[in-house]
Design goal:
The protein is of the alpha/beta class. Helices cover 39% and strands 25% of the residues. Helix 1 (11-41) packs antiparallel against helix 2. The chain is elongated and about 65 Å long.
Length: 157
Amino acid sequence: MNETATQFLTAEGAAALQRELQQLREVRRPELAKLLKTAVAQGDLKENADYHDAREQQGFVERRISFLEDTLRSAQVIEKEDTPAVVGIGCRVTIQEKGEAGAETYRIVGAAEANPREGKISYESPLGKALMGRQVGARVKVETPEGMATFRIRAIE
């Protein structure tokens, strides 16, 4: 990750990353240290599956800690407006695809906290880019895997 790049986060996203970082440092890292100590005590590290598994997990945890530290160090927390006139980071946007009956609501967030399954899309994603700066009633076109799709903004919160 480029440490000089600003990471835009919502206040909730920054708090969630802080909690994850604290859990990894204070709980998961010590747990893995104990697992490694126990595995080393078993001897013969070449054939020790417990040791290799713990080392692999430790590597993942250390990389995640580093990522979270870098992200939080370069973070700019975006405060959401009470009644936004246009789509921005932190807004909830309700959109409706042309030809579809139902509407979908997404929260526009920074890349570090994006999770489409939770309805959080990055402002850097194709849909996020198309929505940014637009007002209620605007139509946006987005290239999707199925082809070009047109959406109308129904609400901004």
